[in-house]
Each structure stands twice: as structure tokens, then as C-alpha cells.
Amino acid sequence: MLNDVPEGYAGPLPTEVPTSYKDFLRKCNGAVFGRLVLFDAEVVAGSQFYADPQEGTPVQLNRSDWFCFGKADEDPLFLERATGAVRGFPDTGIVWWQSERFEKLGDSLDSFLPDRAFGAGYREFTGAGTEDTWATVLQRLGRV
Question: Is 84 left (phi over 0), alpha (psi -120 to 50) or beta?
Fold first, then answer.
């Protein structure tokens, strides 16, 4: 499956899911935009292990401060619970949990998605080349 935007989720969601992501899931139950995957309601609760602290990692995470909502390739994406900001590990050629770089990718999910999923920021963010089908869709729509 290369690109997918399923119908919104109408069922109950766990309380630990931040409001902004609950709102997203009500509109579309997860999504696949090329190399960017946003977890659906059935997967998101079980994907919080990405936020578990790991001994010896440069960036220490925890579930009380961070909510993992998706991935760019194999690098997890997080919502900061206190501010709603989106953060992630840029592709630096090393495994994400070994990275010292944990960068702000947007002030909120609402600012992250238009640029990194639907706009010019997609290619830079994911490193997508000309073979990437989602980048081709965005180009044909005049978004990049």
C-alpha cells in the first residue's frame, strides 16, 4: 500500500491519545502518504513503546511527555503533550534512537501536516526522490 487515507474512526479512543490526534483520527483513521505513516486508531495505542526510556540513548523520552503518532520511514514522530508540538529524529544515517538530534517539525499537528505531508516540506523531510509516488502526486497537484 503506497498511499491511503481511510474514513474517520467513530469508536472510542484511549484517554492517553492527545486531543489533536483524536481530532485527526475522527477525520481519517490514520494515513499513508508515501514515506510518512500516521498510525490508525487500532495501532496507535500499541505504538507507544517508541516513547519508552532507553538506557544509554542521547535523547530520553517517556510516555508522560511524548505521544508517538506515526513514522517517517522508520523514524518515529512524536507530539509533545504539554505544547502539541511535533518532533522527530531527522534522517542522519544512524538509527533514530542513537541520534542526538530531536528536532521540532511543527508547532502543532495542524502546522506539520500541510507542510510535511501535503507540501514542499515532504521531500526535504523524508528524503524522497523522483521515484516516490506521493512526491509525484504532490508535484502533479502543484504542491511542490
Answer: left
CA distances, 134 to each of 46, 56, 129 (Å): 26, 36, 10
Cell, residue 48: 507507544
Closest CA to 66 of 87, 45, 41, 46: 87
For residue 75, what is its C-alpha cell? 523514524
Cβ–Cβ under 8 Å, residues 45 and 131: no
CA dist 2 and 115 (Å) reads: 19
In this structure, what C-alpha cell is assigned to residue 78? 512524536
With beta carbons less than 8 A apart as the criterion, state whether 107 and 79 touch.
Answer: no
Global pTM reads: 0.91
- What whole-number distance in Å separates Cα of residue 59 and Cα of residue 137? 35
Neighbours of 24 (CB within 10 A): 22
Running along the chain, 144 residues long, what does each successive block of 10 average in pLDDT?
78 94 96 93 95 93 97 95 96 87 96 93 87 89 85
